[in-house]
Specification:
Layout (H helix, E strand, L loop, with lengths): L13 E2 L12 E7 L2 E6 L7 H14 L2
Antiparallel strand pairs: 1-2, 2-3
Length: 65
């Protein structure tokens, strides 16, 4: 529903999604251990339909010229 913070995590902090937390949503990937918390990692590309992704990419390319 909202984003509180965006953080960078080291590969060593990333672990596979624990089975107990495994949701049926394909947009959830792994979890990161950060500051004594487990943070669910989200695959944003899976939240946006492919056609919309292409539109966004075209918009970025058009504006970078």
């Amino acid at each position: 529903e909202s984003v509180r913070e965006i953080i960078d995590v080291n590969e060593k902090q990333v672990i596979p999604m624990p089975t107990i937390m495994n949701a049926n949503q394909s947009c959830f990937n792994d979890v990161a251990s950060y500051d004594k918390q487990l943070i669910v990692m989200l695959d944003v590309a899976k939240l946006i339909p492919h056609a919309d992704q292409q539109g966004i990419q075209k918009l970025i390319e058009d504006n970078s010229r």
